[in-house]
Amino acid sequence: MDATRSAMSALARALRRWVRARVRAGAPASPAGDDTGFDHFSRSLGSQTARRDVMKVALFGAVSALLGSVGAKQAWAAANCLCGRQLYHVATQCCTPAGVRPKHPLADLASCPERVAHPGYVCRPNGCGAAGGQSFPGAFGAARFGACCDGHDCCWGSCNSNRPRCDGTFIDCLRDACDAAYPPRLDALGLDSNRIRRSSCRATARAYFEGVQTDTWGTPAYLAAQQAACDCCGTQTCKTCPGGTCEALPSCEDPGCVCFQTIEGAGFCHRPQPCAGLSGCTSSASCPPGWACVSVTCCGSHPVCIQPCFVVGGERVSPFGVAPAAGPTTARPATARGH
């Protein structure tokens, strides 16, 4: 990256020198197909940049500009997907029965019934205790609890894991550690010399198990693990709506809104508004955030920016349940307003 910046800086400086020199000399333009001028320009860079490096930088700039343009169009199109009456971005959000929710991290597990594993997530166990909270001993005497705690962390951190099953495996692991460290050992009198220590170890294991089941500590830790391990949804298909013509616009999922087709070719659910004051546009990227650029409306033949059907947090207003404004609207021409 540093080498590219240096090459681009050298390119800019040499370009300015080359242009000034040719203007002063009154040099004619090179004929089509003749790259002699480019050779002169490349040589003017001296030892700083070879001809192929100049071409590389020029190509890099052209490709970057192209990708930037494509990326902007793709980002707008993805943000124009419909979830009921709401617009959302399929790359970063999910359409759920509860409405639009962030894809990751999850804000509420209950609102994301179709959770999937978050790509690239890796479990990082933190021993016996909650992440960032109080830690507990990883052993009881000769019994080692660390592997049990780490396994429990990763079980909780597996998307859509069964919490009771994780907790059951945890207590079994702790008890096995106690039994392995303090197996029955009978003395000459037939008494088990490890019985007391084994019982104390099992009591400690039980306390650890009860700790992970509490609503005070266990539940928040489990939810946090699931929020990190899951996405609210997998890949969703971007749902739009078909466009139409003035006075023949199909309705959206909201009965007060109609569907337009943007100049990019995507369906856009729109709440009709007066034509007066609408700004012209050449693309939806030039419109206010959430708005779209459409060319087929009742406002004339020029593309205009129109508002979405619904804005999160905004008040729902049915355009057909209020007194009509003077003049045409995006969905009705002026001649149809007196009927």
What portion of residues belong to β-strands? Answer: 5-15%
Shape verdict:
rod-shaped
Helicity, in percent? 25-40%
Return Rg in Å.
Answer: 33 Å
Task: Kindly report how far apart the N and C termini lie.
Answer: 65 Å
Low-confidence stretches: 1-8, 27-78, 312-323
Order of helices and strands: HHHEEEEEEEHHHHEEEEE
Structural class category: alpha+beta
Summed up, the domain count is 3
What number is the mean pLDDT?
Answer: 76
So how many helices? 7
- Enumerate the strands of the largest sheet in spatial order, edge to edge or round the barrel: 1-2
- Major β-sheet, in short? 2 strands, antiparallel
Number of strand elements: 12
Give an overview of the whole structure.
The protein folds into three domains: 2-78, no CATH class; 116-231, no CATH class; 240-339, no CATH class. The longest helix is centred in the first third of the chain and has 28 residues, at 51-78. The chain is 36% helix and 11% strand. The protein has 339 residues and is an alpha+beta fold. Helix 1 (2-25) packs across helix 2, helix 1 crosses helix 3 (51-78) and helix 4 (146-156) runs antiparallel to helix 5. The strands form six sheets. It has a two-stranded antiparallel ribbon with strand order 1-2. A two-stranded antiparallel ribbon has the order 3-4. A two-stranded antiparallel sheet has the order 5-8. A hairpin with a 5-residue loop joins strand 9 and strand 10. It has helices at 2-25, 36-44, 51-78, 146-156, 163-181, 195-213, 218-229, and strands at residues 81-83, 86-88, 93-96, 99-102, 116-117, 139-140, 143-144, 230-231, 258-261, 267-270, 292-294, 304-306.
